[in-house]
Write a structure and sequence with these properties.
By secondary structure, the chain is mainly alpha-helical. The protein has eight helices and no strands. Helix 4 packs antiparallel against helix 5. The N and C termini lie far apart (about 70 Å).
């Protein structure tokens, strides 16, 4: 009888041990799976966060999904090239407006010089942010500045496109170049905002 009870006790103990071992294995496996999911989710945070973006932007930039950071950098490279051209044209436009014989507005002369300086600073700082310092704060500020500068270029286009003082041809060239930069900066703001999670370094 003692042996039988001992066997029963051993069986119960071993059964409990097996049962508790089985339960522990399930918990450990569940923990490992959830931990793995969190790690994999953290590694693909760009795609996970990007799934909540605006549907029209997802359709617009569907061809850029495979190389989102590269698409942002290429868009910025084209924008910088136009900004360098715009800087040169702005200085030339300001000098022509500075001629007293033309009777050009002093305010537009200042606007030409200021826009040249602003675009040069934006080109330098924007390149630095994208290449070296892509935090959430800097990318957010950069995105806001590009939106504001794009709107300024639209105002420059409206101010210069039919301005009759100074050199009329130069005014038209300056105006349409400002319009081109308005479109480029708007496009860049959209693509940067859409793919910002791929650019931001945590």
């Amino acid at each position: 009888m003692a042996r039988s009870s001992s066997d029963n006790l051993d069986d119960g103990t071993s059964g409990a041990g097996e049962g508790s071992s089985y339960t522990y294995t399930d918990d450990a496996a569940g923990y490992d799976n959830s931990f793995s999911k969190r790690r994999s989710g953290g590694g693909s945070s760009g795609s996970a966060n990007n799934s909540n973006s605006i549907p029209i932007l997802k359709r617009l930039f569907v061809g850029c999904e495979d190389d989102a950071p590269g698409s942002v950098h290429r868009a910025w490279a084209v924008t910088v090239m136009f900004m360098v051209i715009f800087f040169t044209v702005s200085i030339m436009e300001a000098r022509k407006l500075n001629d007293e014989a033309t009777g050009a507005s002093v305010a537009l002369q200042i606007a030409s010089y200021w826009s040249a300086i602003l675009h040069l600073i934006l080109a330098i700082l924007g390149t630095f942010i994208l290449k070296r310092f892509s935090t959430a704060f800097t990318v957010g500020c950069f995105l806001g500045v590009t939106v504001v500068v794009s709107q300024q270029n639209l105002l420059l286009f409206a101010a210069f496109v039919r301005y009759q003082h100074g050199n009329v041809v130069s005014n038209v060239i300056f105006a349409y170049l400002a319009l081109a930069l308005f479109l480029l900066l708007t496009f860049f703001s959209l693509i940067l905002g859409h793919f910002r999670h791929y650019i931001i370094v945590k």
